[in-house]
Amino acid sequence: MTDAEALLSTPLSTTAGQPMRVAVYSRIAQGIRSGTFPVGSALPRETEIGTALRVSRTVIREALMLLEEDGLIRTRRGVGRFVTASVTRMGLEGLRPFEIVLAGAQSPLTVEASPIQLQPNTEFVSDHLDLEAEANAWFRESVLLRAGEPVAIVQEHLPAGRYLSDAHPLISAALPRAADAQATLLTGIQELCGPVLTMASCQITPSIIGASRGAQLNLLETDPVLILTQVAEAYSAPVYLAKCIIASNVGPLTVIQSPTA
Description:
This protein is of the alpha+beta class. It is built from 10 helices and 9 strands.
């Protein structure tokens, strides 16, 4: 059995309320990211994927449409669907986990994630997530490493309790599983729920690292850093907040621009 056959023959697992097309999307996207479906290779036919995953051809077609919209695959009429041969190096203009945004083609980042914690609300969180003063929030801090050297700190916040379950039950149900992985919470949410976060903004601020964060990144407290503050929405409500503190040795950050009419 090939790696691709093994991936597709593994039963799908879904959270309550998760559309089947999202589960299929996540499974195929996992195969593309891991190289199980190599760059430029042809995907199995719709009927073959449907048989392997035991879902209808309609669901497979919907998942493949999402993958094509996200630029992971392309269709050659009359030939088939192929993993994108040259994936655009998107940067901050796309809602993507910071470990992917900051990784180079030859230098993937690893994530050391602390346990998720329930914390009282703060002014920073309340302002960005539009929470009431008495609300609690989930907090997760991760250190991103390249070749074993820390290059960034990611601090993630999501509303807790009814503030999240009312805003987006699917994300609320998936959060415990997302928190189990050694990855950012955004990675887990996207893999478990698919493209449910529909709008985001990212603010870029220059700063200095400070003593405590400097110790985490092996920097002097006066060393310069960039701070990226990201807010993402679902159903027009802010449900995800991240602050990424980036050391200067991480390399360039990309924003792909197009001319306006």
